[in-house]
Design a protein that fits this description.
Blueprint (H helix, E strand, L loop, with lengths): L6 H19 L6 H8 L4 H7 L3 H13 L16 H15 L9 H4 L3 H29 L7 H14 L10 H17 L7 H18 L3
Helix pairs in contact: 1-2, 1-4, 4-7, 5-7, 5-10, 7-8, 9-10
């Protein structure tokens, strides 16, 4: 068998196909053979060269979706004059870039497999909290954020946006998205952390409208 000249490209292709299958069919209904079938010419041997098992592929897909492979430095050097402004700009960036994850945010897909939702959320919660806590502390120091609990606030930001809204994004109605973000705005304003502004709410609605178009494909 000829040696693969582009092992990293092969690995990424495997992950692309596996991610699509995991999201469409769920973990239990996705098999190594189905991944092979959808790879159009790649053999099981190539898959097992890169991954020991389906679980190994799953872990790699979850890591990539959470940003480990393509965005290792995502939390570094956010632009902005204050800690709060950096968090706001990062949230805007996230909402605009989520179009790359349109499949993952289709309600029909996400609700098929709670395992996908649970593992991805827990990973995002841990890494996201660690990633933004430094900006919360920066905001405390520059006066743009008033809190004595940096870690808990960072965790609340991730939880309120990713869990309360994010994983149900397209299963909600448009007005519900607006209402939830407006409620979050009042909550954050009430604790002297004015994280949510009208620009962020508008971007969330734009994302919702785009994903409604994507969802019709399923």
């Amino acid at each position: 068998m000829a040696r693969n000249k582009y092992p990293e490209q092969s690995r990424e292709k495997i992950l692309d196909v596996a991610q699509k299958l995991f999201l469409e069919k769920g973990y239990e209904q996705t098999t190594i053979q189905k991944i092979v079938d959808d790879l159009n010419g790649m053999t099981k041997g190539v898959i097992y060269h890169h991954f020991k098992s389906k679980k190994d592929i799953w872990n790699a897909v979850m890591a990539r979706m959470a940003g480990d492979s393509t965005q290792q430095c995502w939390f570094e050097n956010w632009p902005g004059k204050t800690g709060l402004e950096k968090l706001q700009r990062a949230l805007l960036r996230s909402l605009s870039e989520f179009q790359r994850y349109d499949v993952a945010y289709s309600a029909e897909v996400m609700l098929k497999d709670p395992k996908t939702i649970g593992e991805l959320f827990l990973k995002n919660l841990a890494e996201g909290t660690d990633g933004i806590e430094g900006y919360v502390i920066e905001g405390m120091q520059d006066g743009s954020i008033e809190t004595e609990d940096a870690h808990e606030l960072a965790e609340f930001i991730i939880t309120s946006i990713n869990l309360w809204i994010g994983i149900r994004f397209t299963s909600l109605k448009r007005e519900q998205i607006i209402n939830k973000f407006e409620l979050l705005k009042r909550v954050y304003d009430g604790i002297d952390v004015p994280l949510i502004n009208n620009e962020i709410i508008d971007m969330a609605v734009r994302l919702y409208d785009n994903l409604q178009i994507v969802q019709k494909k399923f």
